[in-house]
Write a structure and sequence with these properties.
The protein is of the alpha/beta class. Helices cover 41% and strands 14% of the residues. Strands 8-11-12-13-14-15 form a six-stranded parallel sheet, with helices on both faces. It has a five-stranded parallel sheet with strand order 2-1-5-6-7. Strands 3-4 form a two-stranded antiparallel ribbon. The longest helix has 18 residues.
Length: 503
């Protein structure tokens, strides 16, 4: 079997999904090969002359090898101007590579001028004409040899930015090897299939779609029936670990699916009905010990929606052998200065915190289970311990108006010394969440695969007003502007712990 991670996603760490699936297949005696077509495709495009004649593009192309080498050099991450220059040049080269195909490509995104990943008809159109995809020259050279002797091809489709390229690859395979079976799973496919009105529009193109964790369904599809469920440590050894755009390996690891809190209003995980399934803590520690000894990572990326308190405690007591970061909930455990110092000694370089708002009423209406007093104590404890904070804010929820948003501004400004990075997002209403009907569904993203809906804001604070506030007030506050300037361009949280030297 060939397992493919398709373009386009950030190419700074190996794909955890196909590493996990590859390990399971091998453990059951089923040969497979993972292909990170996202990384390979981007590196291939960066090496192709685009014909752009402006000075910046010519200079960027001439220095492309140096720019790639810079992102693999830890010293560059301590020189922000050099880092930003390398990222900017590479992003420009990718953009130039697809300009004549009506596609905008960057290091973190893929957008087509006319085709939308939210419309099944457009995805089928991408499959019918794969030669129009910017990655087609790479795919047409790379895939033929890999498909020899293969009976099944699996795709890990997690992001909207991957969808059009995934279907172009499927179209190419179907045209050249029509007998091959096509299986597609991943986060985006799971979200599609969790819609209550889901009707598979891809039956003529895809043989099997997988919703949720793919290990057992994939084994069953391949005919490995009556096999007991077992835990298998992910296998990264067949991926090009030294080729990623990072200064050493960033090792992704998932210690569970779903969210242990799972109570927040408007949460897509809750709207989709995704249950929480943690990997036992002892197994996580064993996996991380094995993987760090095997791969010697620069940084471990814990992929969980929120690292459980039990796992945080275990990591504090049993350092995994490399610096690490991930999402955590604001809770009493992190408000303990001594515990945070222990976390720091265990290798915790950064924690991502979903604060969402600096107004208590908004937090309560979202059922976050967080008080602002607790959030202040957590920020203080983490700052004193030397752990960087990537703080996530969400503006425009039904319970917020400009009055509450200004309280968020004031809260962030007061705590600016403890907040290293900010992620600022506009609220999207999940289409099939419990709350959507209360506020009235309206067209938002056109397409039968859309996951969100517009809504009537009870306070009349629409998205245009939210954007105006963010641009004219929030981002212009001097203390907040300094935090925003810290954010790594394109790679954001994936490179943040490296850029601040906290690893």
């Amino acid at each position: 079997m060939l397992l493919i991670f398709p373009p386009l996603a950030k190419a700074c760490e190996p794909p955890a999904g196909i590493a996990r699936l590859a390990a399971h297949l091998k453990a059951h005696g089923l040969p497979c090969r993972p292909l990170d077509a996202n990384l390979e495709g981007q590196l291939w495009l960066l090496d192709q002359p685009s014909g752009a004649s402006d000075t910046w593009s010519r200079r960027a192309f001439k220095g492309r090898a140096d720019s790639i080498a810079a992102l693999r050099d830890m010293a560059v991450y301590q020189a922000p101007d050099r880092y930003r220059r390398a990222v900017s040049d590479l992003n420009r080269l990718l953009s130039n590579s697809a300009a004549d195909r009506g596609v905008t490509i960057g290091l973190a995104d893929y957008q087509h001028k006319t085709l939308s990943p939210l419309r099944s008809a457009d995805l089928l159109a991408a499959a019918q004409q794969p030669e129009h995809n910017p990655f087609f020259p790479y795919l047409s050279q790379r895939l033929p040899a890999l498909l020899s002797g293969v009976r099944t091809v699996g795709f890990s489709l997690n992001y909207l930015s991957q969808a059009l390229c995934t279907f172009a690859m499927i179209g190419y395979i179907k045209a050249h090897c029509p007998a091959l079976k096509i299986v597609v799973g991943g986060g985006l496919v799971t979200s599609w299939m969790q819609r209550p009105d889901w009707r598979n529009p891809f039956g003529t193109l895809i043989d099997h779609l997988i919703c949720g964790p793919g290990e057992q369904p994939l084994l069953e599809f391949l005919g490995a029936l009556s096999i007991p469920k077992i835990h298998v440590t992910p296998d990264y050894t067949t991926l090009p670990l030294s080729d990623y755009l990072s200064p050493g390996l960033i090792l992704p690891y998932s210690a569970g699916s779903g969210c242990y809190w799972n109570r927040c209003s408007f949460c897509p995980e809750r709207a989709e009905g995704n249950a929480y399934h943690p990997v036992p803590v002892a197994t996580v520690l064993s996996d991380l010990k094995c993987l760090t000894e095997q791969t010697a990572p620069r940084l471990i990326h814990l992929l969980d929606n929120a690292i459980s308190p039990a796992l945080l405690q275990a990591l504090a007591e049993n350092p995994p052998g490399a610096p690490w970061y991930g999402f955590a909930r604001i809770d009493d455990q992190l408000a303990d200065p001594e515990f945070c110092r222990t976390l720091k000694r265990s290798g915790c370089a950064m924690l991502k915190l979903g604060l969402e708002s600096g107004d208590q009423g908004v937090l309560d209406r979202m059922n976050k289970g967080v008080s602002l007093g607790l959030a202040s104590r957590v920020l203080s404890a983490l700052s004193e311990a030397g752990i960087a904070v990537y703080c996530y804010l969400l503006f425009g929820t039904p319970g917020e108006t400009v009055v509450e948003a200004r309280r968020t501004l004031e809260f962030v400004a007061r705590h600016h010394r403890a907040i290293t990075f900010l992620n600022i997002a506009l609220f999207n209403m999940p289409l099939y969440g419990d709350e959507a009907a209360e506020y009235g569904n309206q067209p938002f993203y056109e397409g039968d695969l859309s996951l969100y809906t517009a809504f009537r804001h009870p306070g009349g604070w629409d998205r245009q007003q939210v954007r105006r506030f963010l641009e004219s007030e929030f981002k212009r506050h001097p203390a907040i502007a300094r935090i925003i300037r810290n954010d790594p361009p394109q790679f954001s949280s994936n490179h943040a712990a490296l850029l601040c030297g906290n690893q």
